[in-house]
Specification:
It is built from five helices and 17 strands. By secondary structure, the protein is of the alpha+beta class. The chain has a seven-stranded mixed β-sheet, with helices on one face. Strands 3, 4, 5, 7, 8 and 10 form a six-stranded antiparallel β-sheet that branches. A four-stranded antiparallel β-sheet has the order 2-11-6-9, with no helix packed on it. Helix 2 crosses helix 4. One of its GO terms (molecular function) is metallopeptidase activity.
Length: 464
């Protein structure tokens, strides 16, 4: 999620971590895919669509842990599921949800618990926080380094060992009801340079910016115009935004070329978005209702980007992604898209009129940023700044290469690290020029991505 700052407007996105005792019983439920191997060594993927292996299950509760939430609140857990990632299946994204009536006032979200293998040993926690109460997504990229999405330690066999990795997880929720589980595994064979990619610790603000990916990847993008989202609903009308998006992802540290198409919605319910927080699929005009009720507008093989006029009652909200990561390969889920708000980018002119080229370019920055979230990237640090509390302490990017801005650089004492406070030349006093900085102002050129951030984007199942 990203917000506009005029002098300084803030963005608040809270990542919470909950330790989970879920210990699924036997292995009876495990129906893992048998992944078909493709020829190791292929350097590029042909065709016009990504290769995504998909699985969808209804998963029952098999056990419970009393008083997990304190005050007598019980946690219910599933048996173990497992999936495989490896040289020919380099990225796996899982999504699950469980319907329940608890809200943020009584915090009992669904969550997951990962195991480094399929025998309930060698556990690890992912960087993703539980943003929502009823669903969650997570991602595992084969060849991850010891910091990538892992809270501590690593069971990952680093490249170039070229071994398959079997990952186990159980699903956890606050009610005794079935879970819906969806899984998208990339079968886009990575090039040799992707399989052998290594990272190193940083020392300056330019760390990771010298990487040159020589193999180009492709990403299909479906632009979905909602009613009142823009005066002229064509790709040509927003060309400066698309050009900026293309420029950021085409740079040498990423190497992804974009293919665009346009879809027009006539559903006036979404002339403006009435709510971006509720998980109620039946809330008129709500963002979750948009994602779940307009699957016919979505393309399972593309990044689905909704253009909306504004979010009611949330000033300065530029855009929001359906998840970190979102769910590729499926339509109509709570994590099936991302949205940008055109009017939040306006610097001149009346509401509903043509935006200036500068404002459209600003939209391009927002699209690139929110697409980064959907494809798996976190903010380089959250609004309060990074700390030394742990390797990944839920306020910073878990990647090794990414420069960040420590909380100590909040020199004006307002509790957040501003763009102006994060323009240093060191590794820990910078990051404001990175695409994934927590806030933007429409003026600062925030287009930098490290080679490791590019590696994450290239590993997403939608990139082929």
């Amino acid at each position: 999620m990203k917000r506009k700052i005029a002098i300084l407007a803030t963005i608040a996105i809270t990542f919470l971590t909950i330790g989970c005792p879920g210990k699924g019983g036997g292995g009876g439920l495990d129906t893992s895919l048998l992944l078909l191997g493709l020829a190791v060594g292929s350097s590029a993927n042909s065709g016009s669509q990504p290769c995504i292996q998909k699985r969808e299950l209804t998963v029952p509760v098999v056990g419970s842990t009393p008083d997990f939430y304190d005050d007598g609140k019980t946690l219910y857990w599933s048996d173990m599921l497992s999936y495989t990632a490896g040289p020919n299946n380099p990225n796996a994204i899982v999504y699950f949800e469980q319907d329940h009536g608890f809200t943020g006032a009584d915090f009992r979200p669904t969550l997951y618990f990962f195991y480094g293998n399929a025998s309930y040993s060698n556990t690890f926690n992912n960087r993703e926080g539980i943003l929502a109460g009823q669903h969650a997504t997570s991602m595992h990229s084969y060849g991850s380094n010891s910091f990538f999405y892992l809270a501590s330690g690593s069971f990952i066999t680093p490249n170039p060992a070229f071994l398959n990795q079997r990952i186990g997880l159980d699903l956890n929720g606050p009610v005794n009801a079935n879970f819906t589980y969806k899984e998208a595994i990339s079968c886009n064979v990575p090039a040799s340079e992707d399989r052998n990619f290594f990272t190193s610790g940083g020392s300056s603000s330019t760390n990771g910016l010298n990487k040159v990916w020589t193999t180009r990847k492709k990403l299909n993008v479906n632009i979905i115009f909602l009613p009142n989202s823009y005066v002229t609903q064509t790709l040509d009308a927003i060309q400066p935004a698309l050009d900026r998006f293309k420029e950021v992802y085409a740079q040498s540290t990423v190497g992804i070329d974009l293919n665009f198409k346009v879809t027009i919605s006539t559903n006036t319910e979404f002339s403006s978005i009435t709510d971006v927080a509720s998980e109620n699929k039946n809330l008129p005009g709500g963002l979750i209702r948009l994602y779940t009720s307009t699957g016919d507008l979505q393309d399972p093989n593309a990044l689905n980007i909704y253009f909306a006029s504004e979010a009611d009652g949330i000033a300065g909200l530029l855009g929001i992604a359906g998840g970190i990561p979102g769910l590729p390969g499926f339509v109509g889920t709570k994590a099936s898209g991302m949205v940008v708000f055109t009017e939040s980018h306006r610097s001149s002119g009346a509401v509903g009129t043509v935006l200036s080229n500068a404002d459209l370019t600003f939209i391009g920055n927002t699209i690139a940023h929110e697409a980064g979230h959907f494809l798996g990237l976190f903010h380089v640090n959250e609004r309060t700044g990074a700390t030394n509390a742990s390797a990944i302490n839920y306020v910073e990017d878990p990647l090794i290469e990414t420069p960040k801005c420590m909380a100590a650089h909040n020199v004006n004492g307002n509790g957040v690290v501003d763009i102006s406070e994060c323009l240093g030349t060191g590794f820990t006093n910078s990051g404001a020029l990175n695409l994934m900085f927590w806030a933007g102002d429409g003026v600062t050129n925030q287009s930098q991505l490290t080679g490791e951030q590019g590696w994450v984007l290239r590993r997403n199942p939608l990139a082929y």
